[in-house]
From TrEMBL:
Group of enzyme by EC: hydrolase
E.C. designation(s): 3.2.1.22
Organism per entry: Bacteroides reticulotermitis JCM 10512
UniProt xrefs under InterPro entries: Alpga-gal_N_sf, Glyco_hydro_36, Glyco_hydro_36_N
Domain Glycosyl hydrolase family 36 N-terminal: 3-226
GO molecular function: alpha-galactosidase activity
Pfam families: Glyco_hydro_36N, Melibiase
Catalytic activity, reaction form: Hydrolysis of terminal, non-reducing alpha-D-galactose residues in alpha-D-galactosides, including galactose oligosaccharides, galactomannans and galactolipids
Protein's name in the database: alpha-galactosidase
Record GO biological process: carbohydrate catabolic process
Highest taxon, organism lineage: Bacteria
Length: 302
């Protein structure tokens, strides 16, 4: 199974022509180590007998239709070992978002060590491709950087555990038509739904694609998977817009309000935080001015 297209909505009769136009070096929809050993992999394991090879083939496809989403499950199995990977794709009906993740299991006699276990892989056709992402540190959070994808490896990562929100973020926007623009241009947005150590990596090699992998940061985190145990990776939320960065941002906000955030459509009280306003420069005049701002839809003052 291969990942052929992700972009503007198409009609069923267009699928054939898109497949014909795909480039010959298109990789598997979930690359594994063992057959394509020279390329970056989404999944790398060590079987109980020490073998590190995987060769997955599709054994089944199921689609479950729900009022709010359509869930497609693609089951793949190794040709030799009783090792199974399910690729899950959840397409929302009221939001232009697809969530994807993997479920990994086996029935081998011994534990299987998971060395790499990305949530998802996305091939991006080479062009003048740029990425936009956030970085920062304490008291200097959420700084925006935009940069072109160049040959080699670009990694956005964090190993701070559950306190990583003020440094690098597990989200990225991929601009397909050159330098990012707010209101126009084709853009793919990717957000890893995970609050711990993460890794987003782009591999730009001698193929026609930038290979994008997203998931838990595997550094010093190999996982021993017991027989019949199921390892579920975090969801990667994907969206696409031809209305620039703003279009992708609006898609994510709409998705969050419509179900990802509890009570997303509920009106919230506003808290005015004096610490964020004046830091240590606390004066009576400054406090009086901030207290006056409470009249502008502020429920609480700290």
């Amino acid at each position: 199974m291969k990942f052929i297209y992700y972009g503007d909505k198409i009609k069923p009769e267009q699928i054939g022509s898109i497949m014909e136009a795909s480039l010959p070096d298109t990789r598997s929809a979930y690359p594994v180590f063992g057959v394509e050993c020279t390329a970056e992999a989404a999944l790398q394991v060590q079987h109980g007998d020490g073998n590190m090879s995987l060769d997955l083939v599709v054994t089944g496809v199921q689609t479950k239709e729900e009022p709010e989403f359509s869930l497609t499950q693609i089951t793949t199995c190794d040709k030799v070992y009783p090792f199974e990977v399910k690729m899950m794709y959840k397409a929302y009906r009221n939001s232009d978002i697809i969530e994807t993740w993997t479920e990994i299991s086996h029935t081998e006699k011994k534990e299987v060590k998971l060395q790499q276990f990305a949530s998802a892989y996305l091939p991006v056709r080479k062009n003048d491709v740029w990425i936009s992402h956030l970085y920062g540190t304490w008291a200097n959070e959420s700084k925006v950087v935009a940069e072109p994808l160049l040959p080699g490896m670009k990694v956005i990562k964090n190993k701070d555990g559950v306190r990583n929100s003020h440094t690098s973020h597990a989200e990225v926007m991929i601009s397909l038509d050159g330098k990012p623009q707010e209101a126009y241009g084709r853009v793919i947005g990717a957000a890893l739904c995970w609050g711990g150590n993460f890794s987003l990596r782009f591999d730009t090699d001698d193929t026609n694609y930038h290979s994008f992998f997203a998931g838990i940061n595997e550094d010093a985190s190999a996982y021993s998977l017991a027989p019949k145990e199921v390892f579920v990776t975090p969801e990667l939320a994907l969206t696409y817009s031809d209305e620039g960065l703003g279009g992708v941002s609006r898609n994510f906000h709409h998705w969050a309000r419509n179900g990802k955030v509890h009570g997303g459509k509920k009106q919230r009280d506003v808290l005015l935080n004096s610490w964020e306003g004046v830091y240590f420069d606390i004066t009576e005049q400054g406090m009086d001015q901030m207290m006056g701002d409470i009249a502008i839809w502020v429920a609480n003052f700290l």
